[in-house]
Amino acid sequence: MAKPLVVISQAQGKNPAKQQLEAELVAALSSDANVEVSLVPNLYDLAADHSAMQFLRSIPGDVIVLSWLYPRGARWILDRQNVRGHEGVSLLESKTDDEESDDESPARKNGNGRHGSDDAKKNGNGNGHGEVPDSRPLPNRKIYCLDLRDHSEVKVYLDEIRRIAVGQVFNLPGQLSSTLTSIAEPKQDEQVENLPHELAKYLRPLDLLAEQKSATSLDDDDDVPANGEIVRRRWYPVIDYSRCTNCMECIDFCLFGVYGLDPLGSILVEQQDSCKKGCPACSRVCPANAIVFPGHKTPAIAGADGEVGDVKIDLSKLFGAPSAVELAARERDVELVRDGRDTVGLTIGIPKRLKDKPKKPRDELDDLIDSLDALEL
Amino acid sequence: MSDLTFLMGKFEAHIPTDRIYSDNHLWLQADGEPNCYRVGFTAYSVRLLQDVYFLEWSIDPHSAVHKKQEIGEIESSKAVSTLYAPADGTILDFNERLLDDPSAINTDGYAKGFLFRMQTEVTFLTPEEYVAHLAAGWDKTEKLIKGQYN
């Protein structure tokens, strides 16, 4: 059985505590005979043609991703980049609510494991993409995503990685799609040995860390990997296709051309870098909570698992919180103004689901909106 | 002056008639200077919050605000909430007493437990209108509470 590859996705910025955890993991895993270990820049920031992404795409076997991202975020970032596989179930406990002081809607239990069985059932088409058509076959391997923010001790991660690595022997692929078992199993070890030089460097994380240490930072906002390929911070939506229903509300709402359709008519984040930094508006209008902005401060938007399920009641609505749609429209207007365009408020791309709601008495705004529709702008 | 009451299940929320109300469940009482008010949680709010543990403001005193602007956070034994400005205007200053110990919100919510002073020219609800507003929203509030409890 091929050794799983551990991928450590580096934190954005230069937080010493995070860098130390990464370095300790690299050191401990480099001497572990059961796994290969690699170090890559922050997954979210990697462009499709970055060598680290090419490296990840060249890995055929099981992958254990350690990142400073919610597991949902990491998994679907990789999916969009064609690094795909069945969802591996981690038994790592997520940080509990009490430890998380800066959390608007906590209640995140058991990381990516909780939805595992649901997903397996829901994704009957075998490609992991629930209700959204997808022509790509799903490779017969597993991708585990662990959140490095959950624990500060290296040992917790090492234990879980070893559990996964050892458990693999008993956990042969093919549970979800037995038809695929006839396909030759990927020979990860061989593949890894034959990697081209510029990609193989990712398998020498100790050298990468040493190089990074000696390099001086060019710009606070950029993480400079050893080979000089500059990784700029990006901001774009990531679609969780286990939730997406292809309802098209995001493409209707976004006025910046971020979304597109593939030849099968499936919604796609097409122009990542047309997205407006800091704006999570489309995520708010998504009725399935399927749009993740891994860098947003609100856990529900950044890909925390589950719905708002805190033990405490959130009374924000009662005390005057704007609705998600109002907030989204406001955020969109801010970005339109920044682009020198006119605001549109609630007149364009407002979720259809609102129209299904029981009719309230009409008010002036309804009349205004209808008069705009009549103008056929 | 006798208070109005609104029945939250079996709990009687007292709504004093010596002040006016915002639709996001705050009371406002004229503070001497023109268009200046003391602002606090109504008994209805306090009953839903229960014991307040923590109150934090995210804006500075003398900040201009617009209605529904985020101005702070509150946490109680039963609930958390972001707090929003009740109307367009200026938040003058915050009740210092609450910052160390917010318990006056529970023990004396209509006086010493006020939240902040605000200047605004907006027209608010009369006590009668506020009670009607509560009655109209009660179903929704019950659902909000139950929905989140599951």
Short précis:
The complex is a heterodimer of chains A (377) and B (150). With 377 residues, chain A is an alpha/beta fold.
Average predicted local confidence, pLDDT of chain B:
91
Oligomer: heterodimer
**Fraction of residues of chain B in helices?**
25-40%
Taking the alpha carbons of the first and last residues of chain B, their distance comes to 41 Å
Low-confidence stretches of chain A: 96-125, 170-184
Helical/strand content category of chain B? alpha+beta
- Specify Rg of chain B, calculated over alpha carbons: 15 Å
Instruction: Give the total of beta strands of chain B.
Output: 11
Please report the first level of CATH classification, the CATH class of the domain at 4-48 and 91-144 in chain B.
Mainly Beta
Instruction: Please count the helical segments of chain B.
Output: 4
Described by strand count, sense and barrel closure, the largest sheet of chain A is:
5 strands, parallel
State the strand order across the main sheet of chain A.
Answer: 2-1-3-5-4
CATH topology of the domain at 4-48 and 91-144 in chain B: OB fold (Dihydrolipoamide Acetyltransferase, E2P)
Please tag this protein with its features:
heterodimer, A: 377 residues, alpha/beta, 2 domains, 5-stranded parallel sheet, B: 150 residues, alpha+beta, OB fold (Dihydrolipoamide Acetyltransferase, E2P), 6-stranded antiparallel sheet, 4 helices, 37% strand, globular
Explain what the structure shows.
The complex is a heterodimer of chains A (377) and B (150). With 377 residues, chain A is of the alpha/beta class. Chain A folds into 2 domains: 5-214, no CATH class; 246-287 and 315-374, no CATH class. Helices cover 31% and strands 9% of the residues of chain A. Chain A is built from 14 helices and 10 strands. Chain A has helices at residues 16-30, 51-57, 71-80, 116-122, 154-167, 188-193, 197-200, 205-214, 249-253, 281-285, 299-302, 324-338, 353-356, 364-374, and strands at 5-9, 36-40, 63-67, 86-87, 142-147, 238-239, 259-261, 267-269, 291-292, 313-314. A 5-stranded parallel beta sheet of chain A has the order 2-1-3-5-4. In chain A, strands 6-9 form a two-stranded antiparallel sheet. In chain A, strand 1 (5-9), helix 1 (16-30) and strand 2 form a beta-alpha-beta unit. The longest helix of chain A is centred in the first third of the chain and has 15 residues, at 16-30. Chain A is elongated and about 70 Å long. Residues 96-125 and 170-184 of chain A have low confidence and may be disordered. With 150 residues, chain B is of the alpha+beta class. Chain B has a domain at 4-48 and 91-144: OB fold (Dihydrolipoamide Acetyltransferase, E2P) (Beta Barrel). Chain B is 26% helix and 37% strand. Chain B has 4 helices and 11 strands, in the order E-E-E-E-E-H-E-E-E-E-E-H-H-E-H. Chain B has helices at residues 43-49, 96-100, 104-107, 127-149; strands at residues 4-8, 11-15, 20-21, 26-30, 36-41, 52-57, 63-65, 70-76, 79-84, 89-94, 116-119. A 6-stranded antiparallel beta sheet of chain B has the order 3-4-5-11-10-7. In chain B, strand 8 (70-76) and strand 9 (79-84) form a beta hairpin. The radius of gyration of chain B is 15 Å and the shape is globular. Strand 10 of chain A pairs parallel with strand 9 (79-84) of chain B.
